[in-house]
Amino acid sequence: MQKTLRFAFYKTLPIMISYFFVATAFGLLMRQAGWDFSWALAISVFLYTGALQFVLVSFLSSGAPILTVFITALFLSSRQVFYRISFLNSFRKAGRTKPYLIHIMTDETYALFSSIRDYPEGVEPVRAQLTMGTLAHLSWILGTMAGCFAGDFIPSSIKGIDFALTALFVTIVLDQWKNADNRLPAMIGASLSLLFLCILGPERFLLPSLLASCFLLSIYGKRNPPMPPHKRRFRMSKSSALIALSLCILVTYFWRSLPFLALRGKKLSPSLSRLGELLPPSIMAILLIYSTRSIVTGGASLRLSLIAGCLFTALIHLWKKNTILSVLAGTLLYVALRNLL
Q: Taken in order 105, 65, 33, 58, is the CA torsion positive or negative?
């Protein structure tokens, strides 16, 4: 158990650091929007999906219609389906912890799980994944609490803390590219996301990119068998806010658990198993472009900061091959540039 915990802690530390600061920003926004600690904590515990949480803050504050909240949650969380395909087989061994393991697989924990090709002797993969996911979830909850409790003492005007997640994606994409036997999935994911980004814009390209990538890789997988292994006044009432939050939680968990529900008790076909092997590098390439999409719409200072931060993160990672160091170095440079330029 101690060996698994040490392994999980070391692997998850970059995500924990990133999550803590991003969740702190979320807690501050909730506090500034006039919602107390219990609301922020409930959202981070039961919803636990960064992008939707930040959108939900604006919905709760602006009194958005419940239907708008529902449709937004439906589309923002739909990408969760694709992440689970790669773990349909391994999660069957999770037993009673499976529902929670499904819940805690976010963009970043999916990236972490898919980046680990071999586990050390004595470290059981599912138990390690559960531990890594739990540590990430706890850091998100603690960051939310810190943001709520700190209130006005933490300056919310500091820009660029959320770049830590982008820097993490850079390091994972680099590692997957270097270690991959087949680099075509990553190239497909990157190419499709760039294409749809140019056609549909930064707010609508993610889901079409995932769908198209999944479609093309399913065809490719069938034709290419796997290689041998190696305080503001509320504008939404509390009852409406509770309905909105409940809908977001239900919709998000529905998408997260859909592959497991659809294939419960069934043996995976070779084509679906092959698709699960091919998807991770493709999805990671798409997520990297998604996290840097503001290059298209941002000003010159934002573009320069993003490009410099990504390049610096990549260079440090290629040099030192240390994820924690790379994420911290890239984030510090990005934060400095965003606040100086």
A: positive
Alpha-carbon Rg for the chain in angstroms: 20
- The token duo for 141 is 């909850």
Domain boundaries, the chain: 2-226+236-340
The pLDDT profile of the chain, 341 residues, written as one tens digit per residue, is 789 999 999 999 989 988 998 888 788 878 877 888 899 999 999 999 877 887 788 778 777 788 878 877 887 787 788 878 888 888 888 889 999 999 999 888 988 998 888 899 889 999 999 999 999 999 999 999 998 887 656 555 666 766 766 777 788 788 878 877 788 888 998 999 999 999 988 877 877 888 888 889 888 887 776 655 444 445 678 888 899 899 999 999 998 998 888 877 777 778 878 887 788 788 778 878 887 888 887 889 999 999 999 999 999 999 988 877 888 888 889 989 988 88
Provide the b/e sequence for 209-233 (b: ≥16 CB within 10 Å).
bbbbbbebbbebbeeeeeeeeeeee
105-137 exposure pattern, b = at least 16 Cβ within 10 A, e = fewer? bbbbbbbbbbbeeeeeeebeebbbbbbbbbbbb
Short-list 168, 180, 205, CA closest to 282: 180
**Cβ atoms < 10 Å from Cβ of 237:** 10
d(CA 151, CA 72): 28
C-beta separation of 333 from 309 below 8 A: yes
Tokens of 148: 């709520």
